Amino acid sequence: MLQHPKVKGPSIGLLGFSKGGDLCLSMASFLKGITATVLINACVTNTAPLHYKDMIIPKLVDDLGKVKITKSGFLTFMDTWSNPLEEHNDQSLVPLEKAQGPFLFIVGMDDQSWKSEFYAQIASERLQAHGKERPQIICCPETGHCIDPPYFPPSRASVHAVLGEAIFYGGEPKAHSKAQVDAWQQIQTFFHKHLNGKKSVKHSKI
């Protein structure tokens, strides 16, 4: 990426959403040159086995028998994931304390896919336990799993591309739409500060 003509360098920022979040956590933890990472409703464990060099980080244990069905017939998966802090899951935690740069966690308080606020708190406690800076955590009330760029229609439910099932993601439309605008501004501020060294920025109006 650093060799790409559109990449300014000398460092890189990452933004990951959902499954992309734990991938970005892993990249920030194991790769050099990453100085800022934004996670949107992300897990702090690997939700699929991660293979890196001669190491394998196992996946977080899940139980599909705990899938719930809403009154509208949509599935929710929040309760299928086990607690990352339980002894049989501790090897699945991403060693984010190895990361070189700071983290910003954006959390939808009505996320129906997984317990994003709980995961962000785990990350905060782990970083501080290793003497690292506490991450910035922004909690968005009445906001679901899919926090998109501003003015995208709120995605409260859709057919999951991998599972092929109709999934409910949560969120109240008005609050979720506002959160998408606010999150976009917070992301820009975070990246400008940690990649460009600017404390104040002129926000994009897209």
TrEMBL record:
SUPFAM superfamilies: alpha/beta-Hydrolases. Residues 1-196 form the BAAT/Acyl-CoA thioester hydrolase C-terminal domain. InterPro entries: AB_hydrolase_fold, BAAT_C. Pfam families: BAAT_C. It comes from the Eukaryota. One of its GO terms (biological process) is fatty acid metabolic process. GO terms for molecular function: fatty acyl-CoA hydrolase activity. This is BAAT/Acyl-CoA thioester hydrolase C-terminal domain-containing protein. It comes from Pan paniscus.
